[in-house]
């Protein structure tokens, strides 16, 4: 019986890359995203490569409890069990604290933290029901370990994710379920980072064309974080080789954060 992975936020960018990567590693994949068309597109690309039934697209608003509960009912009906859940949904808004809108702060908490809680809870329920010693992995950020100027909502949510990961790890350890967070460096080529370049340029007082290099210069290994870097580490922590690792916040930052 094939292992089953659920990727929340799997319809585009990093999430889509991770869906295809875990499919290449032999998983069946539930591609869950707020955008149904994107989820279906990624699932179809996986099925064309690996065969019909390898993947299926699902629509979910990860911040809505009923939506998440219904998602997992559908996933269980389709795939019958879950071995791996990756929470890759995320949102960021950059602004100085004196102009930071409460709506933006609340959205960051909802998507980056509450959604993680809801999806982890429903994943745990299915894993416990089927006695699966599975893996729960949150896509986090170095902003969950060090504060980020003009990113108070994002950083607050990501710090919260670290505490949630540790608490979930303690809750689920006796069942052999591990829970870890991957703390990413700057995904310079991602749409999220690219969308924030004008704000970062203003924050730093530099030209927009200088932003990427400025962030690269902060990294000891002198490059940004790539999607493949994330997949490489994720596949290790999803595997039996990492069965003795739980509650960890693993840096993928090129040395920019070392604790």
Automatic annotation (TrEMBL):
Keywords: Oxidoreductase. It holds the Pfam family adh_short. It is an enzyme of class 1 (oxidoreductase). The keyword Translocase does not apply. PROSITE patterns: ADH_SHORT. Its EC number is 1.1.1.140. GO terms for molecular function: sorbitol-6-phosphate 2-dehydrogenase activity. Belongs to the short-chain dehydrogenases/reductases (SDR) family. PANTHER family: 5-KETO-D-GLUCONATE 5-REDUCTASE, SHORT-CHAIN TYPE DEHYDROGENASE_REDUCTASE-RELATED. This is Sorbitol-6-phosphate dehydrogenase. It comes from Zophobihabitans entericus. The lineage of its organism: Bacteria, Pseudomonadati, Pseudomonadota, Gammaproteobacteria, Orbales. The gene is srlD.
